[in-house]
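Aim 2 progress update. The chain analyzed this quarter is reproduced below.
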Amino acid sequence: MTLLDGRSLAQSIEKEIIIQTDLLQKEGIIPTLAVILVGTDPASCAYVNMKIKACERCGVACVAKKLKEEITQIELIPMIEELNADPEIDGILVQLPLSAHIDTKSILEAIDPQKDVDGFHPFNAGRTLAGIEAFVPATPLGVMSLLEHYGIDVAGKNVAIIGASNIVGKPLASLMLNAGATISVCHILTKDIKTFTQHADIVCVGVGKAGLIGAEMIQEGAIVVDIGINRLQDGRLVGDVDFESVSKKASFITPVPGGVGPMTIISLLQNTLISARKRKSKNQKY
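Predicted structure tokens:
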């Protein structure tokens, strides 16, 4: 069994980003990411802080807007429009989930697609599905980068994706399909997930349910990508996979933490860097 070590790969990519940001700064361009956080949800605050620290390490400027929980959609959209119009801002990220009184789809659609480094705008989602260059959501992009780094070619592989969110499952399915994989997407209404996972060469799971995937659910030698993250009552962080049992059957497996998580943040910075490189050519389209 080989660990898919996202932490070490992310650190390696981070060094390259530092070099690239330094070159851009010498040309008078400071890559800049704007992060909007609504409310004080502990998990969201922790994620935003990790992104801010990653920006600091890589020489990417970060404009953090921490807003009160009570902010209205009518107040939030003009803030996004202001960032859209700011030529010094390369990427805009709205930390999810948003409060129930705010329509998430409307907020994501308000972001300029060319600054949508999270890849959630329908414009980028559609281009990703069609296999056209676009900003891809950071977690699926990180998963594909991790597999590629370890020499895992998904072409011709049977891939079971557990979770059909717009953030992970759907875009990951698009990337896998475009790369030549045969995909099955399971979700909350899927009657028997095991039917799909037991015949999959690669199993990717990200639903936020600890221990969902056990050893009996995968075939010998399967590649297992655990995208989930859950905090147990004893304080431990675990994924959606029963690592102890599954690792004994898998040929490759991601640890939690230290697998997909670090790749998500570094992929976001890669997207921001791409946007910064395009800044000089304002009229350049994808």
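Residues 10 and 241 are 22 Å apart (CA to CA). The longest helix spans residues 6-26. These observations will guide the mutagenesis experiments scheduled for the next reporting period.
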